Amino acid sequence: MKTIYVVRHAKSSWGDLTLPDFDRPLNERGQKNAPEMARRLLDKQIKLDAFVTSTAKRALQTASHFIKIYERPLEELQLRDELYHAPASVYRDVLSALPDTVQSVAIFGHNPGITEFVNSLTSTRIDDMPTCGIFAFTADTERWSGFALSRKSFLFFDAPKFG
Fold first, then answer.
1. pLDDT value at position 15?
2. How many Å apart are CA 22 and CA 44, to the nearest integer?
3. CA-to-CA distance for 7 and 135, rounded, in angstroms?
4. What is the pLDDT of residue 60?
5. What's residue 124's pLDDT?
6. Long-range contacts of 91-99 (CB under 8 A, 24+ apart)
């Protein structure tokens, strides 16, 4: 059994309209929400074996807050360029390539692909994955290579507005 925590990046800044989308950082609310949401997972005694993130600045900053709250080295972040504005199929491919020793993973990305991905997993639907929202589920497989065809079960959904 594998456990996956799908996290949309926290709220990003639109303060500098000259910045390319890829380089937009978290805004003040995002800087507050990311560690808060990481702490919620930690307070539930949720163990994370791996942290996989888009390389876009806002996703990378969100993942960095999570890994710091988990008191793990930043070097453990697995950077995946292909998660930037990825469709659901890329999330499946990235997870399918994880080493089988990983039992639980947090994966950080962007809308609209992240909403499409979580809605393809179980009967639970999210209209629009909110910033720093977490969709948690299990995949009934021992090998990540079997992820795509495995039975998935919804665990919980959380977002900053629920706190």
1. 84
2. 32
3. 7
4. 98
5. 95
6. 91/6, 91/117, 92/117, 92/147, 92/148, 94/52, 95/4, 95/52, 95/144, 95/147, 96/144, 96/145, 96/147, 96/148, 97/144, 98/50, 98/52, 98/144, 99/144
Of the options 3.40.50.10750, 3.30.1360.70, 3.40.50.1240, 3.40.1190.20, the CATH number for the domain spanning 2-13+22-162: 3.40.50.1240
Q: Which residues on neighbouring strands pair with residue 152, listed in sequence order?
A: 139
Cβ atoms 37, 160 nearer than 8 A: yes
Question: Residues, the chain, total?
Answer: 163
Residues of the chain with confidence (pLDDT) below 70? 163
Q: Which of 89, 96, 98 is nearest to 48 (CA)?
A: 98
Query: Please, is 104 exposed, middle or buried when counting C-beta atoms within 10 Å of its C-beta (0-12, 13-18, 19+)?
Result: middle
